[in-house]
């Protein structure tokens, strides 16, 4: 069905469609555009020079660097574990499959603050492994490893949840055909599975990266708020704001918002490219059936 036919099928009166579009636009402007504009305006309130000085400040630069390092570690880990979990859940039947699916969704249902407290309970000085870690001079809580662990926990479902329904809808027929033709497991994944899930994988990675850079609750519990050492960008913004350094706080917040907007732009480009490929595939002529040669 083409676009013209879809418009004919629409039964809503024109004024209803305009009203719904207007309500959606007003909502987007009030709750998304205006807050972002307010952040940018406040960040530049004392001029561009003050804005740059706030970003050049050593503690701010340390927070930016730690945020990028945390995302650079957490996203690849979730990429590997998310693909593995989605593969197991979507491609195989086994005992405990429902339990594994529930575990994948667990970070969505648990408060990030609770997730941070869990890691303090396990790896803290008074936690289960705290004395052993202290004896071996290993520090996880109030250090970078704890921040990475908390970020991995809260961002784990984003890639897996993007891939599971996609893999389930595609089924196993193509993988089984590849195995019958002699492909090994890695060849089947690289040449058959990966091309079919690449757009879902890209969406999951983008969303995971956005959440990793903006996570606050779990990281706040395990970081210890040590300036210049364990503060990520969201934590640094909170500290500056509590100290009434509003221009510096909004400058760092605007950089965080800019990173989020860049993420959304990349996601939009990926969606546009996906739709373009789907449209090109739909316009291909149907394959003609191969006629069997008659015996002489």
Sequence-ordered SSE layout with sheet pairings:
Elements: H1 3-9, H2 14-43, H3 48-56, H4 58-91, H5 97-109, H6 112-123, H7 130-135, H8 144-170, H9 173-180, H10 185-214, H11 217-223, H12 233-242, H13 246-282
Helix pairs in contact: 2-13, 3-13, 4-8, 4-10, 4-12, 5-8, 6-8, 6-11, 8-10, 8-11, 9-10, 10-13, 12-13
Number of helices: 13
Order of helices and strands: HHHHHHHHHHHHH
Taking the sheet with the most strands, its summary is:
none
Beta-strand segment tally: 0
Q: Which value, in Å, is the CA radius of gyration?
A: 25 Å
Spatial gap, N to C terminus: 45 Å
Report low-confidence residues grouped into runs of 5 or more. 1-6
Please give the share of residues in helix: over 70%
Q: Shape from CA axes?
A: globular
Strand content bin: under 5%
Helix vs. strand class = mainly alpha
Arithmetic mean pLDDT = 85
Structure, described:
The chain has 296 residues and is mainly α. Helices cover 78% and strands 0% of the residues. The protein contains 13 helices and no strands. It has helices spanning 3-9, 14-43, 48-56, 58-91, 97-109, 112-123, 130-135, 144-170, 173-180, 185-214, 217-223, 233-242, 246-282. It is globular and about 65 Å long.
Brief summary of the model shown:
By secondary structure, the chain is mostly helical. The chain contains 13 helices and no strands.
Which short descriptors sum up this protein?
296 residues; mainly alpha; 13 helices; 78% helix; globular; disordered N terminus
């Amino acid at each position: 069905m083409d676009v013209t036919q879809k418009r004919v099928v629409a039964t809503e009166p024109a004024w209803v469609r305009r009203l719904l579009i207007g309500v959606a636009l007003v909502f987007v402007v009030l709750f998304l555009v205006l807050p972002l504009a307010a952040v940018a305006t406040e960040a530049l309130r004392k001029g561009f020079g003050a804005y740059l000085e706030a970003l050049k400040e050593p503690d701010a630069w340390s927070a930016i660097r730690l945020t990028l390092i945390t995302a650079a570690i957490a996203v690849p880990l979730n990429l590997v574990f998310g693909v593995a979990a989605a593969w197991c859940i979507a491609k195989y039947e086994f005992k405990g499959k429902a339990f594994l699916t529930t575990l994948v969704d667990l970070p969505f249902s648990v408060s990030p603050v609770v997730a941070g407290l869990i890691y303090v309970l396990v790896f803290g000085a008074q936690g289960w492994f705290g004395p052993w870690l202290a004896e071996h001079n290993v520090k996880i809580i109030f250090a970078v490893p704890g921040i990475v662990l908390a970020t991995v926990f809260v961002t784990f479902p984003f890639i897996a949840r993007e891939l599971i329904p996609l893999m389930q809808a595609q089924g196993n027929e193509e993988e089984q055909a590849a195995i019958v033709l002699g492909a090994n497991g890695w060849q089947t994944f690289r040449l058959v599975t990966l091309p079919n899930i690449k757009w879902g994988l890209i969406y999951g990675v983008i969303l995971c990266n956005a959440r990793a850079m903006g996570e606050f609750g779990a990281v706040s519990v395990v970081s210890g708020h040590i300036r210049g050492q364990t503060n990520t960008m969201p934590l640094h913004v909170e500290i500056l704001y509590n100290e009434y350094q509003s221009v510096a706080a909004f400058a760092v917040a605007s950089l965080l918002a800019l990173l989020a907007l860049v993420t959304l732009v990349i996601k939009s480009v990926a969606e546009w490219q996906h739709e373009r490929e789907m449209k090109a595939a739909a316009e291909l002529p149907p394959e003609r059936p191969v006629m069997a040669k008659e015996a002489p």
